[in-house]
Each structure stands twice: as structure tokens, then as C-alpha cells.
Amino acid sequence: MSRVFRRFSSTITLKAAPPKAHFHRALPASSFPKGYLVTGIHAGVKKKPDVLDVALIVSTSDHPAAAAACFTRNAFKAAPVVVSEQILTQNRGRARAVVVNSGCANAVTGRQGMDDAWAMVRETDALLPPSTSPAENHTLVMSTGVIGQNLPISKIVQGIRSQATPARSLASDFSAWERAAQAFMTTDTFPKLRSRVFTINGTEYRMAGMDKGAGMIHPNMGPSNALHATLLGCILTDAAVSPQSLQNALTYAVERSFNSISVDGEMSTNDTILVLANGAAAAKHDGKVVEIDEETDKEGFEIFKSELTQFAVELAQLVVRDGEGATKFVTVNVKGAPTYEIAHRIASRISTSALVKTAFYGEDANWGRILSAAGSISVPGLNPDKVSVTFLPSDNTASLPVLVNGEPESVDEVRAKEILSLEDFGICVDLGGLGNEEATYWTCDFSYDYVRINGDYRS
Amino acid sequence: MSRVFRRFSSTITLKAAPPKAHFHRALPASSFPKGYLVTGIHAGVKKKPDVLDVALIVSTSDHPAAAAACFTRNAFKAAPVVVSEQILTQNRGRARAVVVNSGCANAVTGRQGMDDAWAMVRETDALLPPSTSPAENHTLVMSTGVIGQNLPISKIVQGIRSQATPARSLASDFSAWERAAQAFMTTDTFPKLRSRVFTINGTEYRMAGMDKGAGMIHPNMGPSNALHATLLGCILTDAAVSPQSLQNALTYAVERSFNSISVDGEMSTNDTILVLANGAAAAKHDGKVVEIDEETDKEGFEIFKSELTQFAVELAQLVVRDGEGATKFVTVNVKGAPTYEIAHRIASRISTSALVKTAFYGEDANWGRILSAAGSISVPGLNPDKVSVTFLPSDNTASLPVLVNGEPESVDEVRAKEILSLEDFGICVDLGGLGNEEATYWTCDFSYDYVRINGDYRS
């Protein structure tokens, strides 16, 4: 899949990204969580007619859904981030709906931007059935797209209002979930939607999630404060989890998933991952929903945390897979580290290095660049003579050591090229017994298309 | 200077880098420092015949030259970095020669690499006239090029030895300096050579310097420990400066020059800046050279430090100008910061952002990306509502505010495009009165050519 062009005196091979449409596929209706109505509509934020740009997710469960979030740590937080954070705090970790728009980030939009984000919240609140909750607002809001432009708010308001009419498209079937996922997309080439069925204490639960990424992807999110990239994600489950435990599980999961991916090393003003747990499938005790809680049901909580983490990894990997211009999917593992944080920092540095990523694009086993990137992180006690680097093919053939205990191997370049020509491969950097901690990062390559997409994004 | 190609369904405009040859020009012989013999030769590290790959710089001054250096902070320091650091320490800041090779970095080359670096030192030592110095070695060594491959050391040794014969090319005229600068080059498109005449306490001195860069450029060097990128630079002066004062002046200068530029955000295993001060033009007192010293001649030292800093900025800017694939030269100024360090970190983050740099390439005034990059640095007390961003044209026409006190301006896109279509322009980010400190960074854009050059560097 490549074509050759002559450029001035030199020749450029423009390698196309591999086809990605197959990463989106129909999912069984039974795998979606109970008690949610969702849709995606065309409100008019995006110019092209019929391109979906507003997603709505509404919990219809009687149980007030617990909600948790990880937000960008960027100093210039977009209005929807500020508003969602505020609502989550006011409601002590409860929310009943999520509204999302793509096409405009509502970031660095001054006072008008705050008004617009609140307008989206209030309009979505108006769609909800009456509840006994004392909370004033029930909806969390996310936006993604261009920074520094105001939302066409009257179009968005009108779009949300259309869901109060009999003609509304809010539903719970696969195609409704698919529409919602589509409305998240910006430069994404396929909607990112996954679902999962799991069991805790004999009860079956489900979770579904959608996210979007493509560019500005290098999240760094924490509890109520931590992503970098316009990465938006929303996970919905019909399990019942207490708000604090839900936040703890999400924080753990995000660190090992969305905070362990990089497309271009950019932290966005809007990065947000939300999770709602509406308890629609929860077992009841004396007619009341029992929430999974870290304090009272450690075992159940650990299962939930593990399921959420695996699911978040799956969603996060889709973002890398669809990274702007990406032709490769690379797993970077750093082991033998004294702490998880150090392993994570080194994996992150390798995953964001422009030189490493252009070498991936060129299918060049340039391990010197990998080592050079790793070495820019200061690691107390690191002995370069103990460090090893190995390339790991994804096709179950033999791995290829290129550096063993600080000494370069005589590398079979043909074999190296063979591994790097795969769409998926891995790299392992072993720090040589500084400790037993390890971290994994997922990244893509840096191609001509990344430059093309971002050299002319606004027009 | 652009051509259009059709790529699958989309069209790519491959914009060529502007011509850069005019940044190299003949310099007056009188502007070069006295007491140095220099040359560049083809030893055979590079395959193409007649391409220069080894530079030699020898001080012929009776006064033992003071030497100072800033080295990479990378954990995987190349052999020449380790060796030069050791010699500098052993000699208490004195050295009489410098040997440089391009084409192979001698990095991550294990024990053989160390032996090779020492061999380069010993061979160059053998060229020097006898001296009364008790030091065992007199030569500092630098290498740049591919990581993880051993030097063709016998070719290099033979090349250095050729300078002990009557046919040697070591000389002090412009063309000898030009040859030395040429031998530094890797993917550089022009040799980077500058000279300068200055006066301290009525005595006229000179300095000349050469450097190389192109890729892996984001230095972070400190006293005997601080660059990131394969940036090599060497500054020679005929002033006499005491070793400690020379190191202090260099550390200050490097922070505000080589540590304030970025091509691709990569810290190299080899980054090194050296300075020799051989005192060949120094005033003598009772027949003895008097060295400029911070303690005994504060005023003279400050003049020297200022001259060295301005000169280092000039050399550093040439590296950005010739950044791999660069079509733009952008000055990033951050002001109103509480400390220089914070201003420097924000300027650095903006200067390394792939999204900001691809927008520069696309001549897109996407200030949202600038702000988003700035915001990823944590600044205590920062109030987003006080922040302003301005585009500064280099042609003395009016500047263009795009964000004023946190509120986006209604930007004249035609005017914005006009500024960004210049080869040189600037950006000012004002943090809004958090303090009075400021920092300046120089960066380039991120183009198709960067990907082309680095996607296929080794072959």
C-alpha cells in the first residue's frame, strides 16, 4: 500500500495508513448496560449535514447513578471541564446524564464559553424524568474540537430539545450506541465503541464505552484532575458502585490505560474520562440497591476495578490505533524499574519521541534512538551496562535482542525489518534489575499524514 | 517554492525549505582568534569520498588554554562524552586541542567505544608541540552521527596522523576554519561558522565558533553536565580566562542559547559544547598572561560573559535555522513569569509541541494549540483570565494580539496568515503579571521533510 513520488531531487514514499474500519463492528444487544438511553444527532456544530456532532447519554435507572471522572491537568481547562468538575463536586459523585459535542472544544472562550457549557447542561437536564434528587443539575458535559471558538449554542440547544419530542432518537439498541460513538468523532476514522459482560458475586453486569482521540493525545489525568490530549471517553455500567469507590477504580484504570497512551505527546484543554454506574442490574437487598464498595466488599471491588481497567485499556488502545496518520501500533514495555512511576516515565518518553516515531514509520530498527530517549529520563542508580533492548514481533515468531547488558548485538537487519514491517510490534527495555516494577505504554508512528492532518486542521 | 501532489484521495502540498546557503559566508581573517590551527579532513567515516568527517583544532599558544564544557545529561552518555569529561576533570579545566568526527556517534558502543575515543585523543595529542604541562592528555573529543555502531577507528587514526606530515592542512585562514566547520556536519545543509571581535579593558580579542545540529535538538546541558540533542559546538577565543570563570560564563551562556532551542525535543547521548581560551591575545603583566577572573575582575568577566552569551545565541540560532526540514524560524517569548525557570519551561513546551509546530508549517495561526501547550506546565497561581498571546511579525509591521486577558480577540485571519507566511516571526505569551521574569526560545516548524529525513536516516 505505498506509492512513490519524486520530490525535488529526492523521492518520498507515501505509505498509506492500513485500513481501520474493521476495528468498528456490531456488538450484541445483550452486552450493553441496562437503564441507559443514548443517541447521536446532527445539531450543526459541524458544517457537513448529517455528520453527527452531539451525543446524549441518559440513565433511566431509579437508582441515582454514581459518577466519577478524570479531567485534564491543563492550566487552561475548557469551560465544559470546569462545569463538569463543579457539578460532580456539588452532587457528591452522582449524575444522571452526559452531553457531548464534537467540532468545537469550547476552550479559551471566556465568559461566553461558561454560559454555553451551562446551557448544554440545563437543556439536557430538562430531558430527564423527574427525580427525588435534591441536586440542581444532573448532566455532565464534554466538548472536543477547535480551541478558541465559541459554540453555535442555539443550534446545540435546539438539537438537545429535539430529544424531548416524539421524534426523538434516544434508544438502547446497538445503532443508538453507534450514533452516540459517532458523535464523539473529530479526526477519528472510525467510531470507538466497545461493550463487556462481567460477573461479580454471581450477578451479571455490563459496561459499554465510547471514546475519541486521534490528535492531542498524551493524557495525564487524575482523580477529578488528570488527562493530556483531546481524549474524551465515557463508560457506562449497570453495576452499582459507591461514588468514592467508583472514583478510586477509575483513577487506577485511567493511569494504566488512557494515561499510558500517546499519539503526539500533547495534553489538551478538554481531556475527560467519565464513568456512570446506574445500578440498573444490581442485586437489591430489602428492595434497596447495594452498591459495591471498597470498604465493605473488597473482593467485589477488586473484580470491578480489574474489569474497568481491562475495558479502559481496550478503549485507550483504539485511540492509538486510530492516531492521526498512524500506520503502526507499538507496545512499549519498560521493566526492571525501581518504581512503577519511573518505568511509566521512561515508557512515556520513548512513546513520545519524534525520532523514535519517525523511525517506526520508516520501519527502521533504530534502537539507538530508543535508548537515547530512555536516557533523557533521570533514573538514580541506573547502570547503562545492564540495560537490554528487545524487539517483539506480534506474530509469535522469535523476539530480536538488539542490546544485551549494554553491549550492542550484531543485529540481523533483514529480521529487524521483518518485525518492523508488521502493523503491530513491541519493544521491551529492561533496566537490568534496578527493581521489579514495570509499565506498558501504547503508541503509534509519526507519518507524513500526521503533518498533513495537523498542518491544515482548521481550514 | 511548492509543488502539489495527489495522494490517494487527498492532496499534499510539499513546501520546500527556503534556501539556506546564504547563512554561510566568508568571514574576515582578522576576526578569527590568534593561536589556533584548524582543519577538516576526509578520514572515511562517511562513505562519500571528499566529504569531510574529522575536524581538528589545535591551540599553538604558549599559555595553557583554559577549557570548559557543557555535556548532555542523558543517562547513556556516548564514549567521547565520558572521555572528555574525564580529561577535563584530570586537567583541572585545561586542554590544548579538540578532535571531532561526524558520521558515527560512538554511542552505546560498549568497551570498544571507550577504546576508540581514547585512541582519537592520543593520536591528536601526538600532533601537539611538546609542553611543560604535567597533564597526560590534552585533547577533548566529540562525535556525532548514528548511535550503536563502532567507529572505523583505523581510518580515523590514519586521518589524524596525516596532520603530522608536511602535507598537512592544519592552518589558520578562513578556508581552514570553513573545513573544520564542514567536518562537523551530519544532516546540516550548511556549515555553521561565526566569528566575533570584542574588547575588554582596552585589549582586543576574538572568538570563532562552529556548531552542528539539524536533528535530536533540544539541548539541556549544565556545567560539565547538560545538553539534549546531537548538538556539537566548539568556541575558541584568544582571550585568557581562568578555568572556573570560563566554566561559569559558559554555563550561563549555554542556558540562554543552546539550552533555549529546540528542533525536535530530543536529548542526545552526545550533546557537547566546548570552549577553549588560549590567551594568545591577552595582555601580559611581567611577561605573564593575566587571566580574566570573576573574583579579581568582575567587570571584565561580565563583558566576557555577555560576549560569549551573544555569540552562543548566534551559533544556537543557526542550528534552529537549519533544523531538519525547517521552513520557519520562530522566536517564542514568555514573560510575566514568577521565575526564569518557569518562563523557560513554558517556552520550551510551546517550542516542542508537535501540534504547534505542524500549525507553523501549515501557516495556521492556531493560538489555541500554543495556549494548550503552555497550560500543560503547572504554574502555581496562574490565572487563565490574565493571559495574553500576541503574534509578532519580523518585518516591523504591527503585531497581532489573538488573546487578551483570557478573552479571544476577533482575529483578522488574513493578517494572521500574512504574519505566519513570513519565514521569521515571533510569539509572545504574557502570563499576566505573575512576575517580571521572561525567557526566550527559538524553534522551527515540523514538516513533511522532518518525517522524510528521520524515517530513513540510517540507509
CATH fold annotation of the largest domain in chain A: L-amino peptidase D-ALA esterase/amidase
- Low-confidence sequence ranges of chain A: 1-11, 221-229
Proportion of beta-strand residues of chain A: 25-35%
CATH architecture of the largest domain in chain A: 4-Layer Sandwich
Query: Total helix count of chain A?
Result: 11
Strand order of the largest sheet of chain A: 12-21-16-20-17-18-19
Report the span from N to C terminus of chain A: 28 Å
Please provide the count of β strands of chain A: 21
Domains counted in the coordinates of chain A: how many?
2
Major beta-sheet overview of chain A: 7 strands, mixed
CATH class of the largest domain in chain A: Alpha Beta
Q: What share of residues of chain A is helical?
A: 25-40%
What is the arithmetic mean of pLDDT of chain A?
88
CATH homologous superfamily identity of the largest domain in chain A: L-amino peptidase D-ALA esterase/amidase
Oligomeric nature of the chains = homodimer
Instruction: Specify the overall morphology of chain A.
Output: globular
Structural class of chain A: alpha+beta
Biggest interface, CB < 8 A: A-B, 75 and 74 residues
Catalytic activity (chains A, B): N(2)-acetyl-L-ornithine + L-glutamate = N-acetyl-L-glutamate + L-ornithine; L-glutamate + acetyl-CoA = N-acetyl-L-glutamate + CoA + H(+)
GO molecular function, one term (chains A, B): L-glutamate N-acetyltransferase activity, acting on acetyl-L-ornithine as donor
Active site (chains A, B): 230 (nucleophile)
Binding site for substrate (chains A, B): 186, 212, 230, 324, 454, 459
